[in-house]
Write a structure and sequence with these properties.
This protein has 25 helices and 27 strands.
Length: 690
């Protein structure tokens, strides 16, 4: 009897998470049997979240798409027949070429962070669409409000190193359920707590993270800027300021000071729905417990004033000189430390003199229904817009257009794949090369394939390489050498011109960059002034308030729609990814709406009842969860379930709108008003996947 052949392969987690863990996959006789955290990577430290520890279940899922599919029924029906790669790619190339000959801008790529990898997410695909002259996509759906806010305040997406939170004495966890969405930061926070640090959670929901903190400020959605300004008010009133840091390393202090003095705690308490004493105590703690650190997350920026909110919070560390300490300051994103050579990967020069239009991915519903300059073809990869984009009834209607040629690269028959003319089977992270930078720490990670691609699956980069080869029969420009670079070639090109040694990546799977422990201890901000810019002349030129301010939500609860709704990610899903993984789906049980007991009782709703959640945009039917996590006046629709799993074929994005943030053109998912009533007749939940 032959001995079984076992090996381990080092890779990287591909998902949209700040941790970007280093993975170790165990392979036995060519089959991946286990995925673990890499104990040799200091930040991963051998630990993975529940989601990614189930990655083999996702890779070998019985519903995995393993052959190209061609639509045979109505759009949205999910009726397909298998076809060969050559048949699919030949037809796709011909259809795209025909459109490009007339109006190349009528073709739209639609992708986001289904993988965060540089190769499978933003390399050969960009070359392909640049050569085609397709419309550009403004990739705003997650982080641009906060990202541009940091750009106008710090000069880039930079902040603390996550490992130094373990040395902080006060940690404000602002807009983050870190236990579920930032596990390795949470481990640092727990270490700080064991050393005597105080943890404060600021979140409209009583999250699992809030349960473990010393204090929870359960403010109303979209009021974070008011709270930040009130904290500044108290710092100024009590002279809890680092005057030297303000003088040397900030710009616009007098203007920010005047703005903050408009926000006494009493005013902010009324806006935020908080006790005055909570605000004043937090200000005292922030001033007197040092080093003080803020872990800010992107939930804060998903309302009308989200950019201003991030700017206001990002100003706080400079007031008290928190940046002087490596365990003080703020972390939202470290993306600006990335050494990636994106221009080398994407080759924007392939556009030549053409300047295509740009379409905002967050308003894809309106874009697909626009008849003045219609989108005629859309290629979707690393995203599931029918489920995740706002105002999803419009999105679904747009994708249902029979005259819209739709190609989807996917692992599963998602809501979006159901609307495709062709579905092309993509590899998972265990089956391809990729390279990753991060936004929660500063390491670079390499992903090497652990197993051969299943079935006929191909990597995203390979699919666009093959599609270019078929296009070359029609347009010789697609025969250029840069369309022949392999996935491993692309990994190497991603680090060209950087200090990252690719041999070290091959040997260890990660490289730690040598960066200062305290990035702004001596100022050195990346802004035009070199200072933390409380006053931004760049924003002023854009006709945006140059000093952070509070902007009320677009949708304030009213008699018709008296409840504010937020829709943060369910703990065991990653946006709509993992929503069909049996073990994780069982943990989440079913689509639900968290309600405060007072709000539920006023409507005759009990825990587990079927409810209708509605506004003028649509209606979502799900089960009520009266579990003590929602504050009064706010309901929480944890997401993102696929629409097809909803009791009435919808999810929470049936209710969200397409209006954008003050800064960054981003969606306002958490700026939504609804009404909730008990459904007249009990309905059964769909059966769990097995």
């Amino acid at each position: 009897m032959n001995a079984r052949s076992a090996s381990t392969v080092v890779g990287a987690c591909p998902h949209d998470c700040p941790d970007t863990c280093s993975l170790v996959t165990t392979v036995v006789d060519g089959i991946a049997t286990r995925v673990q955290g890499n104990p040799q990577h200091p930040l991963t430290d051998g630990v993975l979240c529940t989601k990614v520890s189930k990655y083999t279940e996702r890779t070998y899922h019985p519903e995995r798409i393993l052959t190209p599919l061609k639509r045979t029924g109505p759009k949205g029906s999910g009726q397909f027949t298998p076809v060969s790669w050559d048949e699919a790619l030949t037809d796709i190339a011909q259809r795209l070429h025909q459109i490009a000959q007339r109006t190349p801008g009528a073709i739209l790529p639609y992708s986001y962070a289904g993988t965060m990898g540089l190769v499978q997410g933003e390399s050969m695909d960009r070359r392909f669409f640049h050569q085609l002259g397709a419309s550009l996509l403004d990739r705003t759906i997650c982080a641009t409000a906060g990202g541009e806010a940091l750009q106008h305040t710090y000069g880039g997406k930079l902040g603390m190193h996550v490992q130094f939170f373990a040395e902080s004495q006060l940690i404000l966890i602002w807009g983050s359920n870190s236990i579920g969405s930032n596990l390795h930061f949470w481990r640092m926070a727990q270490e700080a707590k064991r050393r005597g640090a105080k943890l404060v959670c600021i979140d409209p929901r009583k999250s699992e993270t809030a349960d473990k903190c010393h204090e929870h400020l359960q403010l109303l959605p979209g009021t974070d800027a008011a709270l930040a300004l009130a904290l500044m008010h108290e710092l100024i009133r009590n002279d809890w300021l680092d005057h030297d840091y303000l003088d040397q390393h900030t710009l616009g202090w007098e203007q920010l000071k005047a703005r903050a003095l408009e926000w006494p705690p009493e005013r902010a308490a009324q806006v935020c729905g908080l006790p005055v004493a909570q605000i004043t105590q937090l200000a005292r703690d922030y001033a007197t417990i040092q080093p003080a650190a803020i872990r800010l997350n992107y939930g804060v920026q998903r309302a009308r004033g989200g950019g201003n909110a991030v700017r206001a919070i990002a100003c706080l560390p400079a007031l008290i000189g928190a940046w002087r300490h490596r365990a003080g300051g703020l972390l939202l994103s470290t993306s600006a430390s990335s050494p990636a050579n994106r221009a080398r990967l994407q080759l924007p020069q392939l556009l030549g003199e053409r300047r295509p239009r740009t379409i905002n991915m967050s308003t894809i519903g309106d874009a697909l229904l626009d008849t003045t300059a219609p989108v005629q073809a859309i290629v979707v990869y690393n995203s599931n817009p029918v489920a995740v984009a706002p105002e999803s009834a419009k999105v679904a209607r747009g994708f249902a257009r029979e005259d819209l040629f739709t190609v989807v690269l996917e692992h599963f028959r998602t809501d979006t794949a159901d609307h495709a003319d062709y579905v092309l089977p993509a590899t998972t992270q265990l089956e391809h090369w990729d390279i990753h930078t991060t936004y929660g720490h500063t390491d670079v990670l390499l992903n090497q394939p652990a197993i051969a691609p299943l079935g006929q699956a191909r990597s995203n980069a390979q699919i666009f390489r093959d599609l270019a080869a078929h296009m070359a029969r029609l347009d010789p420009a697609f025969a250029a050498p840069h369309f022949h670079d392999s996935d491993e070639d692309l990994c190497r090109q991603a680090m060209e011109g950087s200090s990252v040694d690719f041999h070290t990546l091959l040997q260890h799977g990660f490289v730690q960059q040598a960066l200062p422990d305290a990035p702004f201890a001596q100022g050195g901000f990346l802004t035009p002034s070199g200072k933390c810019e409380f006053y931004s002349s760049a924003l002023e030129k854009l006709d945006v308030n140059p000093v952070p301010d509070y902007l009320p939500n677009y949708e304030v609860p009213s008699d018709r729609h008296p409840l504010a709704m937020i829709s943060p990610p369910a703990r065991n899903f990653m946006n709509s990814t993992f929503a069909n993984v049996s073990t994780l789906r069982r943990l989440e049980t079913r689509p639900s709406l968290e309600m405060h007991p007072v709000d539920a009782a006023a409507r005759g709703i009990a825990d587990g009842d079927v409810v209708r959640v509605f506004n003028d945009r649509g209606e979502h039917v799900c089960h009520a969860s009266v579990n003590g996590r929602a504050r009064q006046g706010v309901v929480v629709g944890l997401g993102i379930w696929w629409r097809k799993d909803g009791l009435n074929g919808t999810n929470v994005n049936e209710l969200t709108h397409q209006r954008l943030t003050d800064i960054g053109r981003a969606p306002t998912f958490y700026d939504c008003a609804v009404q909730v009533v008990r459904a007249p007749e009990a309905e059964e939940a769909p059966p769990a996947l097995v």
